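Hi R.,

Here's the chain you asked about this morning:
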Amino acid sequence: MLAFQVLAVVTMTLGNFAAATQENVKRMLAYSSIGHAGYALIGLAALTAGGPNGDVLGASMAHLLVYGFMNTGAFLFIAMVEHWGVGRTFEDYNGLASVAPIAAVAMTVFMFSLAGLPPFGGFLSKYALFFSAIEAGFWWLAAVGAINSALSLFYYSRVVKAMWIESPAGDFEIESRPVGLYAAVLFAGLGTLLLLPGFGPVIETAQSVAAALF
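And here is the predicted structure, written out as tokens:
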């Protein structure tokens, strides 16, 4: 149905534009989640249009799996930064990598993967989703998704730039490093990276299941 295709376009576009206007990192990530919901809706839009579009839905499901690791890890990183009392804006993150380099590396992986940059897991899942949509004849949905993904690089890279390039406004006072949060952030980061060699079987399984169900 055309309504689901329009919904996918509106959701991913509004989510990304809203995220691009934020100064609060947590709010940026929350609005970007709406954009990713729009990407996932491409699979549902293709399915409701009729025809053997299980591959598109399967690719959408695989993207949600990868998204689960990278987005959860990013929110956990934000929780850890708030625990440190660093602040919530992009400017507050300035120079954070100088005092927490390992955690900053993990956050960089999450940001670039969410943006869909190679060679991270988010690139493979978005590529599979957009390619499947094109093969099913929904090239314009794939084009809108690719444009929105390019837009997302603007605000995701702001986090990376703040942590690694910008100079801190003052001295950070990180008195404790919560072991649980640190471990969870690193686990999510490793999960995002380890999905790279295993993504082929993941996408094949998801598409097989979707085709069998629908």
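One quick note: The longest helix spans residues 179-213.

Cheers,
M.
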